[in-house]
Specification:
- Associates with the 50S ribosomal subunit.
- GTPase that plays an essential role in the late steps of ribosome biogenesis.
- GTP 1 binds at residues 9-16, 56-60, 118-121.
- This protein is of the alpha/beta class and 162 residues long.
- It has helices at residues 15-23, 67-81, 97-106, 123-126, 151-161; strands spanning 4-8, 41-47, 50-56, 84-90, 113-118, 140-142.
- The chain has one domain: Rossmann fold (3-Layer(aba) Sandwich), CATH 3.40.50.300.
- Strand 5, helix 4 (123-126) and strand 6 form a beta-alpha-beta unit.
- Helix 2 (67-81) packs parallel to helix 3 (97-106).
- The structure holds guanosine-5'-diphosphate and magnesium ion.
Length: 162
């Protein structure tokens, strides 16, 4: 079976946009409305001749227990079922208390965790990426799902992590 990458993060950080970039085609559902991806959606990806599966998680909408609890639950599920986890953060916003909570969960992960600093569309945002080292999950990788910049380096890192 091919390795599985689970993509997790708050609503609206750009998970589905980035997943589209990783797939090289426009398939994952992207909407301006937070929480539009209702379920975990699975895609086949191919990079450097290696096949893998990408799971775009959308179950992070606030439930009865609130956003932070559903975020933590999604991260738990991701690290138990995937071969690698990609935490997507909006670099323009930085790490919120939700990211801090999920990072706390993911620091216990046996599966490797990568951090994508998304929405790095300009130099000013690029200068903020280093602040995400504070999550304790290693080097944050700058990407722009919108422009596609950084996605090749991210894909290389994903394949190395498997
Ligand atoms: P998700 O809820 O995490 O899956 O986020 P989406 O992929 O649906 O994106 C949410 C919003 O962020 C949409 O309006 C996207 O166009 C926008 N977005 C995604 N990636 C980028 C990016 O790299 N730069 C900018 N400026 N906007 C982005
Ligand atoms: Mg989505």
């Amino acid at each position: 079976p091919q390795p599985v990458l689970a993509v997790v993060g708050r609503p609206n950080v750009g998970k589905s946009t980035l997943v589209n970039r990783l797939l090289g085609r426009r398939e994952a559902v992207v909407q301006d409305t937070p929480g539009v991806t209702r379920d975990r959606v699975t895609y086949d990806a191919l990079w450097n001749g290696r096949r893998f599966t990408v799971v775009d998680t959308g179950g992070w909408e606030p439930d009865a227990k609130g956003l932070q609890a559903s975020v933590a639950a999604q991260a738990e599920l991701a690290m138990k079922t995937a071969d690698a986890v990609l935490l997507v953060v909006d670099a323009r916003v930085g790490a919120t208390s939700t990211e801090e909570a999920v990072a706390k969960v993911l620091r216990r992960s046996k599966a490797p965790v990568l951090v994508a600093a998304n929405k790095v569309d300009d130099r000013r945002t690029a200068n903020e990426v280093h602040t995400l080292w504070s999550l304790g999950l290693g080097e944050p990788m700058p990407v722009s799902g919108l422009h596609g910049t950084g996605s090749g380096d991210l894909l290389d890192a994903v394949l190395e992590a498997f």
